[in-house]
Amino acid sequence: MSEPDPHAITRLEQLDALFGSVAAPSLRKEIDHIHPLYRQMIEASPFVVVATAGPDGLDASPRGDPAGFVAVEDERTLLLPERRGNNRVDSLRNLVVDPRIALLFLIPGVGEMLRVNGRATISVAPALLARFAVGGKPPRCVTMVCVERVYFQCARAVQRAGLWRPPPTDVGARVPSPGRILDALTGGEVDAQNYDAALPARQRETLY
């Protein structure tokens, strides 16, 4: 049996000593509802990361659509349409058994992000689905989030990452394509070249 790591942080007291006290603004920015200014951030965001937990583990999944696709129903309720995807529905499976949910809203060109924590239910009410239809195609369902905590995240992570800067010119050569990944993981059962060639058209045709 290996010896415990003497440098591991295992107690809250150690964390408190390492990081010190929380600055007052970091506490004051957290509220239990959607403030009008926080609403503006949600309505400007075309991309949100959805975090959930369930018996099979944790999940963090991306959601994206034109800015404002997450509707602010009222100061304590958000509506998130579920579009077509790969049908794994990991986050939805989690929500069925554990309603806890966390959302991270990103806004291109803006360093600050918005964090929302709450509890969610999944609805297939016809009127609700019709409300979020695009090109006559409704979402599969709508996740209704009961808001419990809201606060903005400072811009340091985005600044350090250079997230909104133009991408490096060689990024395509450094990052493997979906076809290459599937080819490697399936031992050649998926042909990388054919998969990658067909992928752009397939994605365009199945966005909604």
From TrEMBL:
Domain Pyridoxamine 5'-phosphate oxidase N-terminal stretches: 36-154
Name of the protein in its database record: Pyridoxamine 5'-phosphate oxidase
InterPro entries on file: Pyridox_Oxase_FMN-dep, Pyridox_Oxase_N, Split_barrel_FMN-bd
PANTHER family per UniProt: FAD-BINDING, PUTATIVE (AFU_ORTHOLOGUE AFUA_6G07600)-RELATED (PTHR42815:SF2)
Domain of life: Bacteria
NCBIfam families: PPOX_FMN_DR2398
Record Pfam families: PNPOx_N (PF01243)
Residues spanning the membrane: none
